[in-house]
Amino acid sequence: MEREIKLGNRWVGEGHPAYIIAEIGINHNGDIDIAKQLINAAVDAGCDAVKFQKRTPELCVPEEQQDKMRHTPWGYITYMEYRDRVEFGLEEFEEIADYCDLKGIEWFASSWDKPSVDFLEQFDLVAHKVPSALLTDSALLKKLREQGKPIILSTGMSEMEQIQAAVDILDMENLVIAHCTSTYPCPPDQLNLRMIETLRDMYPCPIGYSGHEVGLPTTIAAVTLGASLVERHITLDRAMWGSDQAASVEPGGVRKLVKYIRVVEEALGDGVKTVYESEIPSLEKLRRKDTLPVRGRYKKDS
After folding, report:
1. Residue 299: inside a domain, yes or no?
2. How far is CA 195 from CA 15, 23, 205, 207, in A?
3. In the chain, how long is the greatest CA-to-CA distance?
4. How far is CA 236 from CA 50, 147, 209, 246, 251, in A?
5. Spatial CA neighbour of 101 closest among 119, 120, 126
6. Residue 290 placed within a domain
7. Whether 27 contacts 240, CB under 8 Å
8. Which residues, 6 or more positions from 141, have their beta carbon under 8 angstroms from its beta carbon?
9. Positions in the chain short of pLDDT 70
10. d(Cα 191, Cα 96) in Å, to the nearest integer?
């Protein structure tokens, strides 16, 4: 059995309901009111947490990219100006923390650099997230491990040797490994959902799934394959401006996703064949004669 860990007041691992994360990321486009609307959508859907992203732009944007011009809702500006526009600071994250507390939902963020780890630590979050792009940043991984919090490791754009090297740095006792393909949006033939089973066989920790596909069925399939944690990007409108919007799920879709995952979890059962009490009328009406051994024990309807 895979190990379980605790995120806030929720246990995550085999035998527990999937921990569902609505990834807001930067789909708020630097607008705190949009962020709050997305939090509302996650709460309304029954998600367990919302997730943001935190960067120090001057560290995360390569020097050769900083002065490149880009068409944005704020005009034709440099890429660095754009990154500053969509980056929340202390005031916005304090407002997010208060709002999530008011709404009764956990929140955390992925750290894209070491100063961002220090920034997020002041909020005493339930977990840290390693984005796929930073899986090979050993200095960042060591910094995150030093915080002593649960870590969710996304594995997009990575080979198995790189995943193993990252796991060797992190604390297996406090880790969730999330299978991921970093294509936005990702075509079904590149999702490779059976990697969830592969990772479950390899590592004694909860295995999750971070999806960037269009639609819901493949994310639900990830749960049937054993994903203990599920993350999908959320947006108010997939036509909104922003690189992640098209691979995101709108509020109505998030409600359906959570509902379908919970139905599927209930339907998976325990794998022990039994005759349910609800079957007895059909059994008595349709079965002519028992010629094989019968235990005579039936499971009552729940």
Report:
1. no
2. 20, 21, 14, 10
3. 81
4. 14, 33, 22, 11, 6
5. 126
6. no
7. yes
8. 130, 134, 166, 169, 170
9. 1-2, 290, 294-302
10. 32
Confidence at residue 243, expressed as pLDDT on a 0 to 100 scale: 87
CA 284 – CA 302 distance, rounded (Å)? 21
Retrieve residue 122's tokens: 């002041």
> SS3 sequence, 195-230?
HHHHHHHHCCCCEEEEECECCCHHHHHHHHCCCCEE
Rounded Cα distance between 219 and 3, Å, is: 22
Indicate whether 160 belongs to any domain. Answer: yes
What residues are paired with 49 via a beta bridge? 21, 106
Q: How far apart are CA 223 and CA 257, in angstroms?
A: 11
Where does residue 294 rank: exposed (0-12), middle (13-18), buried (19+ CB within 10 A)? Answer: exposed
Residue 104 · residue 115 · CB < 8 Å:
no
Structure tokens at 70: 């880009």
Amino acid at 271: G
Q: Is residue 207 part of a domain?
A: yes
Rounded to 5°, the CA angle 21-219-13 comes to 55
Structural domain count of the chain? 1
Domain enclosing residue 73, as ranges: 7-272
State the CATH number of the domain containing residue 22.
3.20.20.70
Q: Which residue's entry shows tokens 């990702």?
A: 186
Angle between helices 160-169 and 138-146 (to 10 degrees): 40
Tens digit of pLDDT for each residue in 46-88?
999 999 999 999 999 899 999 999 999 999 999 999 999 999 9
